[in-house]
Amino acid sequence: MTEKPSNDDVRAVWNANAQFWDMRLAHPGSWQQTLIFPAVERLLDLRPGEAVLEIACGSGLLAERMLAAGARVVAFDFSREMVERARARVPHVDVRVLDATDPEALRGLGDGSFDAAVASMALMDVSDIGPLAAALPKLLVPGGRFVFCVTHPAFNNLSQVLVTESEQEGGEIATRHSVKVSRYAHPQTGQGIGIQGQPAPQWYFDRSLSDLLRPFLANGFVLDALEEPVFDPAVADANAERMVWTEIPPVLAARMRLPR
Known about the structure:
This protein has seven helices and eleven strands. By secondary structure, it is of the alpha/beta class.
């Protein structure tokens, strides 16, 4: 069992990776732009003038898109390097250095301040999602929604092995792409590579789907919508080595909602 890292350990990795990730994900053909953001935006279904809280905003790529859609955005990340890049990209957005595991800091964002909250490809990077799950019902208005996207708990975790096999089929060579997963039911913590060539391996906190949803359900949210986007072979992606796995979703996106 890998020893759980401190928040300082995790923060140091994202400070080291900030420039590399910003450059790669800002590319129009990146998996973030072609796979992740469209799913998140469909579920978020923003209306002009709505106030949105972005959790673990990274370098501000999604905040930029939400601002263009007419939203009023407050964003935060615990990596100062990421926040500096986000502030440069979206100077009209209130971007703060804040830790999503810090209950007091979360409370300081203001009760009932937001119509929606979003965490795009972030929860699997957060060591403890309990404080966030407890804080969001207070930060959101009644009926407020929370959208998140994560590496798929069942198909894209630390135990995953990508498999490519070829066999004879009807006189032709058939190639199949599959995934082997040897561990799912219990949480896993370990280091991995999100993008080939990044300066430092990042920490992952893998959770089963039930472990991921449980703290939010316990704090009054209901699961409202779910998507499992897959790569489209017709869409060129400059940064995705997994493009051939077109039947196995690499990510899971969900919308949760509070009662009115």
